[in-house]
Amino acid sequence: MKGFHLARRIARMAWAKKAEDIAILDLRGLTDATDFFVICTGQVGLHVRAVTDFVMDEARALGERAHVSEKDSDEWMVVDFIDVVFHCFQPQKRRHYNLERLWCDAPCVEVDAATGVAGTLKAARADLEQRRRLPPPRPRSKPAAPARRKAKARP
Fold first, then answer.
1. What would the pLDDT profile of 47-59 be if each residue is shown by its tens digit?
2. What is the mean pLDDT of residues 103-129?
3. Exposed, middle or buried by CB within 10 Å (0-12, 13-18, 19+), for 17?
4. Is-contact 52 67, C-beta < 8 A?
5. What's the CA gap between 116 and 7, in Å, rounded?
6. Beta bridge partners of 23
7. Which domains does the chain have, with CATH numbers?
8. Residue 19's CB: how many other CB atoms inside 10 A?
9. Which helix (H) or strand (E) holds 91?
10. DSSP state of 149
């Protein structure tokens, strides 16, 4: 099982363990390290570990080989399946590293929170193209400095 199909399966596995804010980033053409990131959030360290362990066990049952990084950390766990890299964060670490912003040129497939079903790559690519067509936000202008009073001449 390769690529997007595996990423969707992994996202569904994370959803089954109540992971939140699940997203799939298509990194093909942006890096040679991997094809997809699956990113999700666990509420506390124990939840992050449970989601990661479940994803690893289920993927291995499907015959996928996995390498785990950060085994001793409950804030951010990473599992490398070669074509797909799975990231599970605690909320504050996810906000801090913000992989979606770091890889903003990658199409992002959202996973429905109610059903655990991932969207399509076609829709994600169309959404990325739409965002690229939008004009860049205008820089905020600095507020005008208050007018200075002229000093009165001393007699």
1. 999 999 999 999 9
2. 80
3. middle
4. no
5. 12
6. 39, 110
7. 3-123 (3.30.460.10)
8. 28
9. helix 91-97
10. P
Residue 18's nearest CA partner among 52, 59, 51 is 51
User: Angle at CA 18, nearest 5°, toward 34 and 70?
Assistant: 45
pLDDT at 41 over 90: yes
pLDDT for residue 155: 60
**Placement of tokens 């992989």 in the chain:** 99
Contact 25, 106 (CB under 8 A): yes
Cα atoms in the Cβ-side hemisphere of radius 13 Å centred on 14: 35
Helix (H, G, I), strand (E, B) or coil at 38: strand
Residue listed under structure tokens 């979606």: 100
Residue 94 in tokens = 């996810």
| pTM for this entry | 0.77
The owner of tokens 């739409």 is 130
Q: How many residues does the chain have?
A: 155
